[in-house]
Design a protein that fits this description.
The chain has 11 helices and 5 strands. By secondary structure, it is of the alpha/beta class. A 5-stranded mixed sheet has the order 1-2-3-4-5, sandwiched between helices. The relative contact order is 0.12.
């Protein structure tokens, strides 16, 4: 986590660092599915295979949805309940049998394993994207504001809940000369520009939005400028310098100058306490 945050401060793509972890989780999921396949009678008839497959449904968890070719979320959307899983298994197995029974180069077992692996891939990649994004955003904000000389709990506050003044949760609020600066962050790529537009609306005039990068045709930069919102791109940029530039005349506390180069950025991040990078823990 510390290494990835330092990379973000240097303008790198965090996905280059998280992709290896995602692949490892995918391989672990595939191993589980291959183990299930090996326990099932490969050359048996359909009824024998189905009876053996039913015995695999002895608990909960993602694996038992994957054996239906579903993610947990897809099962919810389809209205497939836990008590319906065995009926759905019979339905999907019958369908796959019909498709593969006359195919000399595509066996029933291969088809089922592919369907399982597809569901596992969607689950793992979706989960990694969500959890990694939120964890990194929190670590980035904590580390960045701390490096700039602000103190959590005194000068800035993370995950501020909604109230009468702000109807939605805000990632960070920073004490300023005239109240608080609202900050939203999203490690968003060019394909999700509407999310950035929403964050500009959420922070309001004088707020700050931090994001991965944005497409050249997006209207978000002009919208941010019109609303006097600090608009900070991470990719190919020096986000700490941009944050300092936006905040230094607004916050009530004198800021520390940001590290000027990659070597000093890495040193500054390495000098921070471990708890800044641990989800759910407050410094100290």
């Amino acid at each position: 986590m510390r290494q990835i945050v330092a990379a973000l401060f240097q303008g790198y793509n965090y996905r280059l660092y998280t992709e290896g972890q995602t692949r490892s989780q995918l391989l672990d999921a595939y191993r589980q599915l291959i183990a299930v396949r090996q326990r099932l009678p490969g050359n048996a008839g359909y009824d024998e295979w189905l009876a053996a497959a039913r015995a695999e449904f002895d608990g909960n968890g993602d694996l038992h949805w994957w054996l239906l070719g579903l993610t947990n979320k897809t099962a919810q959307n389809l209205g497939v309940r836990r008590q319906d899983r065995l009926d759905y298994l019979e339905e999907i197995a019958r369908h796959v049998q019909e498709v593969t029974e006359n195919s000399p180069d595509f066996s029933f077992d291969d088809a089922m394993l592919m369907i399982w692996a597809g569901a596992a891939t969607l689950t793992v990649c979706g989960s990694r994207k969500s959890s990694a994004g939120k964890t990194l955003e929190r670590a980035f904000l904590r580390a960045g504001l701390t490096i700039l000389g602000l103190e959590e709990g005194a000068d800035f506050w993370l995950n501020m809940q909604r109230d009468a003044e702000v109807p939605r949760e805000i990632d960070v609020e920073i004490a300023s000369r005239r109240g608080r600066i609202r900050v939203e962050m999203g490690l968003i790529e060019r394909g999700n520009q509407e999310v950035i537009e929403d964050k500009i609306e959420r922070v309001g005039s004088g707020g700050m939005v931090i994001f991965d990068r944005i497409g050249s045709k997006s209207n978000a930069p002009q919208t941010a400028e019109n609303r006097q919102v600090g608009f900070i791109q991470i990719r190919n940029n020096r986000p700490l310098t941009e944050m300092h530039s936006f905040l230094h005349s607004r916050v009530s506390k004198e800021l520390v100058e940001p590290p000027p180069d990659s070597e000093s950025i890495i040193a500054a991040v390495n000098g921070l306490p471990d708890e800044l990078f641990v989800p759910g823990l407050l410094p100290g």
